[in-house]
Amino acid sequence: MSYGKSYGRRRYLKPSVFWSIRQGFPSWLSPVLTTLSLLVPVIIWCFLSYGGFVNPKFLPTPTATLATGIDMLRTEALFADIAASFLMVLAGFIAAAVVGIPVGLAMGTFYSMDGLLGGFFRTVRYAPINAFVPLIIIWAGLGESPKIIIIFLGIVFYNATMISDAVKFIPDETLNVAYTLGATRRDLLFRVILPATLPNIIDALKLNVAGAWNFLIISELIAAQKGLGFKIIYSQRFLQTDKVLFCILVILAIGLATDLFFKLIFRLCLPWAESKTS
Amino acid sequence: MTTFPTTLGQPNRVTSAAKLEIRHITKIFRKGKQANVAVDDVSVQLVSNEFSCIVGPSGCGKSTLLNIAAGLVKATSGEVLVDGEVVPGPGADRGMVFQNYTLFPWLSVAKNVAFGLDLKGMPQSEQRSKVEYYLNIVGLSDCAKAYPKELSGGMKQRVAIARALANDPEVLLMDEPFGALDSQTKEQLQEFFHELWRKSQITVFMITHDVEEAIFLSQRVHVMDKSGKLRETVEISLPAHRDLEMKLTPEFLDYKRHIIHALR
């Protein structure tokens, strides 16, 4: 009697290096693949531009872009724009952390706060902040404050919900053992819940700083006299694609540096933990 | 023939020095229209300095009962008393060791042991000597500065025991503390904990599904059945000093047979 082909035979998992799932991965392969993934877009860019397949008005060469960039830094005071944008992101980011972290902790810790704030925060998270940009500019004017408000609103709800979820993932036993050691609710919050979620808090902030840059550029595209977003929209009017591209590269570089900064903070401050995000 | 000094049919035996008393505890979990009785009118008295165990099949409500004793879960009815006084919630008087490793991963071993002491506001120097003392008892003085992630399962559980004991609880509650360990480590810890209890004479209330473990460690074994009722209480009259060899003696095996039959 036969039951088809494979039922009777023994089946084993075939070994694989590239498709390995939590079974070990050669340490050299990971950076090689990362470099490759970053290089491929650059190679495509070089191929299209140097090869003359695209009008340089639409896609300038990497060298032309860099040359323009150096020129912008020298003659157009691009550093001032970078600093202006950076400060806006920093202000919005700090505001969103100062509000988002305590609200998230409270939502995750207390059922009452989850009811009071959780429903609102989780709902508003789906509101398209970009759609509010014109309104916010009408309400807050054209200065710096609307930009900070937009960044703040763009990420504060994510901060809070991500942190509140992290609190809910703390095992019951961890909290119960603290109770049986004589902890009050206040002790529980500051000596157990806060340190237990600190890695998640740093991870959440790291992820949301990217969001902060997105919202800054959106707000600067619409109303600004300085900043990288303003530079991009201004250059676009004169079809200066090289300048647009250089500004994007600057934002990428800042993002990369921020990421490294958070990784460093994580490693220095939380030697006991492992980051779950990359 | 051996006879067993059981207290069958008189669960409310009055003892002079009940450190912890569980009085007519019932716990009903309601899910929609279904009501599941996890603990059904259980009364237990813990005599001072005594080691008692509850054995029962998994899902019989013994963990729920222990959590109620600790004040972590609210009973549907009944009350928990410490030294004759009703306690409304959890407190440092009832220390607890859990089955899963509950060390705080962000604190070093020494800081974990000092956690309860720090909450009480004990001066640093006093904390240090106390932590040193208890880490020495559990044989982990060398690991004081390590983080929990660097320890093996058995070591983690020893730290958890040290942390509970350093806090000077009046009763130590243990929820299958050796349940997640391999059999060698488990037996080592049983022997270790027996010695520790003999020296400290702390009142211990432990939950286990391991009948051997219960007999080996206890003066009194309470047998709980699937319906959440206390079926029988068996007093263990084995010598005060016990070692692992004892698990093979006829007296020990008689107790084991009796309890296993009671569990069926």
Structure in a nutshell:
The complex is a heterodimer of chains A (278) and B (264). With 278 residues, chain A is mainly alpha-helical. Chain A has helices at residues 29-50, 62-75, 78-109, 111-124, 129-140, 145-168, 172-180, 185-222, 228-237, 241-269.
What are its keywords?
heterodimer, A: 278 residues, mainly alpha, MetI-like fold, 2 domains, 10 helices, globular, B: 264 residues, alpha/beta, Rossmann fold, four-stranded antiparallel beta sheet, 7 helices, disordered N terminus
If you had to describe this structure to a student in words, what would you say it looks like?
The complex is a heterodimer of chains A (278) and B (264). With 278 residues, chain A is mainly α. Chain A contains ten helices and no strands. The longest helix of chain A has 38 residues. In chain A, helix 4 crosses helix 6 and helix 6 packs antiparallel against helix 8. Chain A folds into two domains: 45 residues; 208 residues, MetI-like fold (Orthogonal Bundle), CATH 1.10.3720. Chain A starts with 28 loop residues before the first helix and ends in a 9-residue tail after the last helix. Chain B is α/β, with parallel strands linked by helices. Chain B is built from seven helices and ten strands. Chain B has a six-stranded mixed beta sheet, sandwiched between helices. Chains A and B meet through helix 7 and helix 8 of A and strand 6, helix 2 and helix 4 of B.
SSE blueprint:
The complex is a heterodimer of chains A (278) and B (264).
Chain A: H1 29-50, H2 62-75, H3 78-109, H4 111-124, H5 129-140, H6 145-168, H7 172-180, H8 185-222, H9 228-237, H10 241-269
Helix pairs in contact in A: 2-10, 3-4, 3-6, 3-8, 3-9, 4-6, 5-6, 5-8, 6-8, 7-8, 8-9, 8-10, 9-10
Chain B: E1 18-31, E2 34-47, E3 51-55, H1 62-70, E4 77-82, E5 85-86, E6 94-97, H2 109-120, H3 124-137, H4 153-166, E7 171-175, H5 183-200, E8 203-208, H6 211-217, E9 220-224, E10 230-235, H7 250-263
Parallel strand pairs in B: 3-8, 3-9, 6-7, 7-8
Antiparallel strand pairs in B: 1-2, 1-4, 4-5, 9-10
